[in-house]
Q: What sequence folds into this?
């Protein structure tokens, strides 16, 4: 168990021909189909797509929470069949994913208890990871004593303390106010730079997707599949004002917006004739 | 982030202290109103007896009060109280272990929860006391039989509440435990049980009230030693003042236990109350 985990040997996550459907026969409803994606260690990928496209289902598949109907998710070539000990998930619904009867530090340490880490050690790890997300010394608070932004920081600290090599984030900043959102975005960028973890973040917010990621993967409906990939090329440095006024930011943003707004027909065309 | 918490915390502190002061004020008012209500009831009772409105055998309030003092000095009362209370609480303890375990297990499996609905409704409305003749035949009119009847009656509210309690675990919490690979036993202890605890504690409170009722009832019907037996003995001897005094003491005891449980619940489930604001 490392300190504030510095991912040394990262993991490659690959998605091959992923399909997920509900129902059978004529009622079979494909949420995701033929989705391919390869995320090397340490990359920050954001997955952007319109609301209801199946982003959450995709993330649940990536985390091993739901089994795929077709194809599969592979970690270093091994098929993922259940939640993986090196994948941490930050849920959208942070207020419910934190347990109200535990203090913050207990919440962060809880997954480590499941891993069999001793009490003193896991509380120490939890405290260090809380400090890493800017909540040093707040370990004795309960979730309901914190703002939404602070609660989401706790959820991030929990994923880090779990010693995740891959962090999956499902619309993590969807329900916090604008200023807090910017703070959290920069926190995640810093954590990514400092710790070298792989981050896969799902969002419907194009600006957020472009600002945060090394690579933006655009998915479209339905069934959800990858329609475009954009390398942002900002390097490890981000600044809320500077980056957002960078011409590459505007270009990426425009390209994604056009893709998503032009609907399915245009998307299939653009895929057919790149 | 830091400056915001500094701004809000003193404000929150002031608001909550004002709320506490208001709560203290209204609490005192409630106590006064309760005392007035009890006093009124006693006056009505006394008037009803003196004017002859009440049935002939009803004792006067002052006689009951005297009987009360007499009882408190008698060893057989304290022994009977111990027998009744120990039977009631042992029954509740057994019912809690059985009810919580089964309730949580069944409640955490959705299909099972739906399947047992009918059995629960049946069990809940089954008059356990009707089993008494059979149980007296099989076990005899003794403490063990009384405990069994109490636990049979008290298990249902606890079971039902635990079952609903287990369903209180949010899907977000269960996704979290799955994705962080929390082992089943740890999940049961640290996630399922606490999320069901508010419901379970309500079930236990209902069960305690039932247990005293049933314990006394069993003693009255089967002459098992305890307060119920003392009541029938007092009635048999024409000492209605004593019988009423026993009833009064049983009521006080029930109230005391419930108040104690409510306090324990308030402390144990502090997160639950505060989280709801």
A:
């Amino acid at each position: 168990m490392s300190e504030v985990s510095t991912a040394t040997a990262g993991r490659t996550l690959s998605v091959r021909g992923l399909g997920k459907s509900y129902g059978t026969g004529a009622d079979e409803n494909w949420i995701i189909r033929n989705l391919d994606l390869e995320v090397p260690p340490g990359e920050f990928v954001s997955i952007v797509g319109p609301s209801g496209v199946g982003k959450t289902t995709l993330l649940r598949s990536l985390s091993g929470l739901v089994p795929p109907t077709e194809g599969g998710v592979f970690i270093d070539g091994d098929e993922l069949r259940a939640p993986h000990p090196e994948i941490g998930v930050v849920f959208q619904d942070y207020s419910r994913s934190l347990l109200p009867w535990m203090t913050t530090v207990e919440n962060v340490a809880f997954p480590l208890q499941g891993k069999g880490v001793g009490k003193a050690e896991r509380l120490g790890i939890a405290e260090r990871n809380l400090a890493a997300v800017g909540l040093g010394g707040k370990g004795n608070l309960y979730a309901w004593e914190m703002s939404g932004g602070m609660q989401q920081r706790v959820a991030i600290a929990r994923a880090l303390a779990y010693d995740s090599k891959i962090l999956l984030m499902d619309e993590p900043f969807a329900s916090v106010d604008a200023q807090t959102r910017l703070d959290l975005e920069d926190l995640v960028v810093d954590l990514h730079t400092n710790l070298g973890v792989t981050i896969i973040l799902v969002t419907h917010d194009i600006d957020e997707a472009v600002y945060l990621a090394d690579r933006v993967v655009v998915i479209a409906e339905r069934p959800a599949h990858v329609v475009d990939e954009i390398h942002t090329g900002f390097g490890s440095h981000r600044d809320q004002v500077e980056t957002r006024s960078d011409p590459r930011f505007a270009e990426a943003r425009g390209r994604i917006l056009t893709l998503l707004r032009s609907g399915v027909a245009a998307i299939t065309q653009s895929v057919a004739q790149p | 982030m830091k400056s915001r918490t500094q701004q809000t915390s003193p404000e929150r502190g002031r608001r909550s202290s004002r709320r506490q002061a208001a709560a203290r004020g209204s609490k005192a008012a409630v106590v006064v109103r309760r005392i007035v209500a009890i006093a009124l009831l006693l006056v009505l009772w006394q008037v009803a007896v003196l004017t002859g409105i009440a049935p002939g055998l009803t004792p006067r309030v002052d006689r009951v009060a005297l009987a009360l003092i007499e009882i408190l000095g008698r060893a057989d009362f304290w022994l009977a109280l111990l027998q009744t209370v120990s039977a009631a609480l042992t029954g509740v303890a057994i019912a809690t272990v059985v009810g919580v375990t089964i309730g949580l297990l069944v409640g955490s499996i959705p299909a099972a929860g739906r399947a047992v609905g009918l059995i629960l409704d049946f069990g809940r409305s089954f008059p356990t006391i009707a089993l008494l003749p059979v149980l007296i035949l099989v076990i005899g009119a003794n403490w063990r039989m009384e405990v069994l009847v109490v636990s049979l009656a008290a298990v249902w509210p606890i079971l039902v509440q635990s079952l609903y309690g287990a369903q209180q675990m949010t899907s977000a919490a269960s996704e979290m435990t799955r994705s962080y690979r929390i082992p089943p036993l740890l999940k049961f202890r640290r996630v399922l049980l606490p999320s069901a605890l508010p419901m379970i504690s309500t079930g236990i409170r209902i069960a305690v009230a039932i247990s005293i009722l049933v314990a006394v009832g069993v003693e009255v019907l089967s002459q098992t030693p305890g307060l119920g037996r003392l009541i029938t003995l007092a009635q048999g001897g024409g000492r209605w003042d004593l019988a009423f005094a026993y009833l009064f003491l049983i009521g006080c005891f029930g109230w005391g236990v419930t108040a104690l449980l409510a306090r324990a619940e308030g402390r144990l489930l502090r997160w639950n109350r505060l989280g709801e604001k």
